[in-house]
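Re: that chain you flagged

S.,

Sorry for the slow reply, it's been a week of failed gels. I finally had a moment to sit down with the sequence you sent. For the record, here it is as I used it:
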Amino acid sequence: MNEYLIFLAISTAIFALFSLGLNLQWGFTGLINFGHIAFMTLGAYTTVLLSLQGVPLLVSAVTGAIVAAFLGLIIGFATLRLREDYLAIVTIGVGELIRLVVNNQDLPVGNTWVSGAFGVQSYPIPLSTAPNLFFRLVMIGLLTLLAAVTFFALWRWIRAAQKFMVTDSSKRLGSKQEFASRLGVGIIFTLLTAAIYISGVIGLYDYKPKAGLMLLSLLVLGFVFWRWEILVRSPWGRVLKAIREDEEIPKAMGKNVFWYKVQSLMLGGAIAGIAGAFFAWQLSAIYPDNFQPQLTFDAWIMVILGGSGNNIGTILGAVIFFAYDALTREYLPRIFTNLSSDQLGAFRIMIIGLILMVLMIWRPQGILGKKEELTLGK
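Prediction finished late last night. Pasting the structure tokens below so you have them in one place:
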């Protein structure tokens, strides 16, 4: 159970990072990207192939993020001056193009060239060897600090909604709903943080490599979330929101809308590239089929479920998605014993599709999204 919780924490952190990149592009800028997996693929393969050539892991991961950002630059210059539907079409094609090129191209693995279809294995993974006791205690201290910061941030987030509910009587009903949503999400995150913290402490003390990877992924997720929140509340972020609503207005104010869109594509792509590095480290061996288009649409589910244009909502969407995935994998075979594994897989997708349909009717802005910022009806 302890190891499974660590696995779920790593998976959730990776896809929360992946979805935060998409949320910047779609939720804040209104760019339709149906090929987000392309950035993850480039980040994963660049990191792995460079590390096999002896490049330090940190440098490899940063280089993977830069390569992914460069892809965003290329896509932006090729499509952003055209209509929005061109971007959607091009990104789908680019995602599949990169996967097929990797599948059919020989790759430099160490001192030899190996067909991409055979995948890449036996590459370096961070914190894969057991550190000494002092370093393990330092890692536990970092995890404790991260958990404490999370608890404090959740408390401030809930308190802000409570104060607004008390002071703004003109919007009392909306304020109560906002407070109730934040309280429920806060309780969920608090319980999950406590469970992950306990599992992490056990895994780090009796050192498990996956526990070290979990700590690293959570630290990166926390840092990216912090910087993302500062960015989207800055003048730069407000321009992105203005572009999402009506790009003619920032144009009239003298803003270079095209360049802001390119920046959004590049930054979102870079974060997806970092998520790709963690994805490769978690798998320990990567193959082209690990990067199917389905992963892009999983990220869309997470963004829409939590609320587009809301970073906490995106993380909540990732948590709900992987909780649903874990529970249905465990209990559906026990309930529907007469269904095959393929039928169960299709049934699981059908259920989440039904959940999204109900959500779009009941709360189209997502769980934490704001209806006035909804981009689906743009």
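What I noticed first: The chain has a mean pLDDT of 88.

Talk soon,
D.
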